Amino acid sequence: MENNFLNIINTRRSVRKFTNETISETDICEILEAGMNAPSAGNEQAWQFIVMTDKSVMKEYSKLNQNVGYLKNASAAILVCGDTKLEKNIGYHFHDCCAATENILLAIHAKGMGGVWGAVFLNAIDDIRELLNLPSNLNPVSVIPFGHFEGKTHDVKSRYDKQKVHWNKF
Amino acid sequence: MENNFLNIINTRRSVRKFTNETISETDICEILEAGMNAPSAGNEQAWQFIVMTDKSVMKEYSKLNQNVGYLKNASAAILVCGDTKLEKNIGYHFHDCCAATENILLAIHAKGMGGVWGAVFLNAIDDIRELLNLPSNLNPVSVIPFGHFEGKTHDVKSRYDKQKVHWNKF
Description:
The structure is a homodimer. The first copy, chain A, has one domain: NADH Oxidase, CATH 3.40.109.10. Chain A contains 5 helices and 6 strands, in the order H-H-E-H-E-H-E-E-H-E-E. Chain A has helices spanning 2-11, 25-36, 55-64, 93-110, 125-132, and strands spanning 47-52, 76-83, 114-115, 118-119, 138-147, 165-167. The termini of chain A are far apart. Strand 1 (47-52) of chain A pairs parallel with strand 6 of chain B, so a sheet runs across the interface.
């Protein structure tokens, strides 16, 4: 089981091209569950998840967050937001949302689908807030377009690099 | 396999108390491999990993990074650092190191051990640099003390919270 688990971690790769197949609500909720079981500072879970499945919303979102223009072709997308109202360890929602994002990507991959970690560029945030009705206490950290894809991901060579490991000092 | 995988993600919990058992270099390298297979901005992998196994180094580290004072009792610890010399997408090493940290925690858990995501407080960084011989291009983002622990982790209730899921708008 351990080896299977590590193999899934080590073979996850970014996927940006998707089929038209839809994703069940059960699958989406299990993917979100993985996200919410990420660690967070003081276990405060200061996050909120906006799930985009409505094609018109996704199309609009793609225009605003241009580095993920392909989001409109995904089956769904999750915007991971820190919630500063729930946060006690100021600033740490950023770490927490990144941990949740990685769990979400792994769960997508474990389900045989693919997704990608999209950055939310600062200059797009005001427009994204308006589109998705986000209050000022929600801080978008990442967006994950995902879905089924055709064929296999191409590169499964491990990225382990011995030269980046330093024992007891650099 | 998918269910096992999600179960491992969903049952990971922070562990701060450890037995004296040592960890093999193979296990440590496999844990690091999971970290290095995290996604990174533009796949630049702008990170370096300092592995602490020397008890005298760990004892000194514990004095500096006081929020992880228990690190001295762990079998090993990994300091995850962004490397600004390798970074092209400025500032994104922070996301990347968080993704690597989460993969490392999951690999530790998959191996039946436990660890915790330790914050590196800004006021400790200069002293940590000196202790571990870190050049100025290395930016410590997180530290993960880990090891074997006695018994089971206590809380395995899923943290899924329906109220944090918002469909197509907040």
